[in-house]
UniProtKB/TrEMBL annotation:
Gene: hmp
Residues of the full protein shown: 1 to 146 of 376
UniProt-recorded name of the protein: nitric oxide dioxygenase
UniProt source species: Phocicoccus schoeneichii
Family as reported in the entry's similarity comment: Belongs to the globin family.
Record-annotated Globin domain positions: 1-138
Length: 146
């Protein structure tokens, strides 16, 4: 769980991060695909140009930050996205990869030291959101008996 101070950090940085949204997304995908070219296939299967629709990921993480005090509010959206993830075979082990590059992009765009508490608050919060997705998707895989 996040402390009240960490929640405040998340809430206060969302507007700034939204302003840098495109920068974050570009840095995130570029670095992630450079380190994990195997993921390009997964994203390309969707006939979407990378850098275009995938912006949805970072935007959703930011949008979820607005519901930090009431995370159940994002569940309907998570279920919809989860179906798409399931169809593309997104697995729990992919989440830390996304988290690592998303965090690095936030650090880069905001020019933060790696010890900055803004970063550790976001790291924790990404972990919470990722777990919501992983749990929802786990149930979907179970239902489908995969
Ligand atoms: C699609 C969010 C984690 C791979 C999406 C979409 C959203 C989203 C909003 C668009 C859904 C739609 O078009 O209906 C998130 C969030 C994540 C996350 C918030 C983390 C908390 C991941 C992970 C992977 C992944 C770990 C795998 C590495 C994909 C792919 C698509 C997708 C391949 C389809 C892209 C496309 O349509 O171009 N995700 N995602 N996502 N996500 Fe995720």
């Amino acid at each position: 769980m996040l402390t009240e101070q960490e929640k405040d950090i998340i809430k206060s940085t969302v507007p700034v991060l939204e302003e840098y949204g495109t920068g974050i997304t570009k840095t995130f995908y570029k670095n992630m695909f450079e380190a994990h070219p195997e993921l390009l296939n997964m994203f390309n299967q969707t006939n979407q140009k990378v850098g275009d629709q995938p912006e949805a990921l970072a935007k959703t993480v930011l949008a979820a930050a607005r519901h930090i005090d009431n995370l159940e509010a994002i569940l309907p959206a998570v279920i919809g996205i989860g179906h798409k993830h399931r169809a593309l075979n997104v697995k729990p082990e992919h989440y830390p990869i996304v988290g690592k590059y998303l965090l690095a992009a936030i650090q880069h765009v905001l020019g933060l030291e790696s010890s900055d508490k803004i970063l550790s608050a976001w790291e924790k919060y990404y972990g919470v959101i990722a777990q919501v997705f992983i749990d929802v998707e786990k149930d979907m895989y179970k239902e489908a008996d995969w």
